[in-house]
TrEMBL record:
Residues 1-38, 73-121 are annotated as: Disordered. This is AIG1-type G domain-containing protein. It comes from the Eukaryota. InterPro entries: G_AIG1 (IPR006703), GIMA/IAN/Toc (IPR045058), P-loop_NTPase (IPR027417). One of its GO terms (molecular function) is GTP binding. Gene3D superfamilies: P-loop containing nucleotide triphosphate hydrolases. Belongs to the TRAFAC class TrmE-Era-EngA-EngB-Septin-like GTPase superfamily. AIG1/Toc34/Toc159-like paraseptin GTPase family. IAN subfamily. Residues 10-22 have a biased composition (Basic and acidic residues). Residues 80-97 have a biased composition (Acidic residues). Residues 17-247 form the AIG1-type G domain. Residues 245-272 form a coiled coil. Keywords: Coiled coil, GTP-binding, Nucleotide-binding.
Amino acid sequence: MAAVSSASDTESRGRNPPERRLLILGGPRSGKTSTANSILGEEAFDAGVETTHSNVGQTQIYGRRVTVVDTPAWAIPRDTEEEEEEEDGDTETDDNDNAGAESESPRMPPPSLDSEGASMGAILCPPGPHAILLVVSVAQPFTDVHRRAAEEQLGALGGGTWRYSMVVFTCVDKLPKGVFIEEHIANTGEALQWLVERCGSRYHAFDNTRKNTEDNTQVPELMEKVEEMITDNQGWYFEVNELILLEEEQARRALEEERMRMEEHARQREQMIGGPPEVGGAL
Ligand SMILES: Nc1nc2c(ncn2[C@@H]2O[C@H](COP(=O)(O)OP(=O)(O)O)[C@@H](O)[C@H]2O)c(=O)[nH]1
Ligand SMILES: [Mg+2]
């Protein structure tokens, strides 16, 4: 079981206004960084390029300190991705049943060797996030492969995460006119419905192209939903298990060592193909 702690005990005694900590997770190019920037009210991080390391930003919303952690994309397993493509070849599947939303799912890149797991994001907002925002673009398909990736990622945090999770839909500006997010959820298929239900039917729709104008209430509305969730969770927040962090760090080190071994191997091969190194000036 994951450790959880109460937000009320230490924070309410401090002089600082109670902080809200948001951890942003999601698949490749789902709009995580853009969402982080929208919440922060500034272009704090580079959107549109792959995020390889978690970033932390802070802002004030209605006098409350809000910490936002943007993270690299979670991994979509390669083998299952290929399975999915094979399935797609047979029949028209759910992917095309996206409430008419333009399908522009990028080919999922393999996770970068140096990309960090969700646990790293979680420890960047100590003592742990009040809300885990699962970012899903309405302009991309959401199939069983994506569902499993989400499940694995949250599971890797150590269990007990769903009660802190909420789906944040991005690119709602790309939904056909008159199609509301509820209709999109209903029409997109079981995988997405599963995700929303798993998050206790908590979701929020975001259009990251909307700049912070007075009539733009999407961030305050998101924060209201976060407050409701915190109330439902009696002020508790999610605290990542240190053992999991340790395991993740070990896995990262092993990957890094493997990469260095491969580079060394490639270097040696290059030297052999290029012939023995010249013997300088002895003749
Ligand atoms: N139209 C539209 N584009 C978006 C929205 N959110 C993100 N994008 C675009 O989607 C692309 C990927 O966004 P980014 O935030 O970098 O995704 P990340 O890889 O998940 O961090 C970028 O080109 C963004 O400009 C949105 O709400 N509407
Ligand atoms: Mg990003």
